[in-house]
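Bench notes, afternoon.
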Amino acid sequence: AILAADTYLSYNNPDKAIAIIQRSLSGFSGGSLLGALMRVQLGSALATKGDCKEAIKVWSEIVDNSLLKFLRADASLRSGVCYEQLGESQKAKEMYQKAAAESSPESPIAASAKGLDRALDLKANVADE
């Protein structure tokens, strides 16, 4: 289901990606590895479709789960991007900072989160001028 959804997303068909993940997700708990990976993919499909509010809800199941530490930085980063698209800069900033804090300093996630956080600061400074 994860690979099929990824393929559908590659061909810009988020509705089919969402459908296939939702059908498969019912058999997995939120704390299981496959369930968490499916939730990451489901959130990505929802965000691609333009439904960032729902994507954030899905990713929050990962961000708020202490057992899924290995995916929390990624889900936080993705949530931050969606919050920014929704115009909620403060929440985006919080998610970027959380992503940077939860990943190793040398990781691509930390670098992306720090860069996006700085970009938000620059936007705020330009808007204030």
